[in-house]
Amino acid sequence: MSGPAPAVAHEPQESYDGPATLLADGTSVSLEVRLRGHFQPIDGLFHWWGRVAADDALDDARSGSTVTLRTAYGEAPARLSDRDPWGRFRVSGTGRPPF
Question: N or C, which end of the chain has less CB nearby within 10 Å?
Answer without folding.
Answer: N
